[in-house]
Amino acid sequence: MARPAPRWPSHNSLYSTKGRLVLQGAIAGLAIGGVYAIIAVSMTLMAQLVRVINFSQAAIGMFGAFVAAYLASERVPVPLALLIGLVVGIAVSVLIGMILARWLPESSISARSAVTVASLLLLISMSYILFGTRPMNFRAVVSGTAFEVGGVVISQVTVIITGSTDCC
């Protein structure tokens, strides 16, 4: 007895599913690209102000995020934890900027770069000491589908990121 031929998905359904996934990925990529653009603008602004690239910029954001995650794990309301984490990140950034702009304005680029690398290492070390080395869970503040167009799902996070990067 002959076996029936395998049934393959129809040509249209195969490409429409892939097309939707590609479009969904492209839209999410635009949102992340906007975040990278903001990071690039902030690094350029910092480099123009103090004539050095701040190597600790990512660690400053990480430290503020760890503060927010820690506070949220200690039953502080999430919006308040996010606000405190943001304020801590801003305060650390201002402190490093003041050190570079006020105490080292005439120093060599190497000396100012060394200060930013030292602050990077300090923030990473402080994070290990204060928060440990295990990943911290943080409940999603925004999740779910914002809307769907033609089978392409656009998440609320993508809408918020795209909107906030367009504002800046």
TrEMBL record:
- Asked if the record carries the keyword Amino-acid biosynthesis, the reply is no
* Localization per record: Cell membrane
Bilayer topology annotation: Multi-pass membrane protein
Q: Give the domain of life.
A: Bacteria
Q: Which InterPro entries match?
A: ABC_transp_permease, BCAA_transport_permease
**Chief subcellular site?**
membrane
Q: Kindly name one Pfam family recorded for this protein.
A: BPD_transp_2
Per the database entry, which stretches of residues form a coiled coil? Answer: none
Q: Which UniProt keywords apply?
A: Amino-acid transport, Cell membrane, Membrane, Transmembrane, Transmembrane helix, Transport
Spans traversing the lipid bilayer = 21-46, 52-73, 80-103, 109-131
Q: Which PANTHER family match?
A: AMINO ACID ABC TRANSPORTER PERMEASE PROTEIN, BRANCHED-CHAIN AMINO ACID TRANSPORT SYSTEM PERMEASE PROTEIN LIVH
Family named by the database record: Belongs to the binding-protein-dependent transport system permease family. LivHM subfamily.
| Protein's name according to its UniProt entry | Branched-chain amino acid ABC transporter permease
Q: Which organism is it from?
A: Gulosibacter molinativorax
Its lineage reads:
Bacteria, Bacillati, Actinomycetota, Actinomycetes, Micrococcales
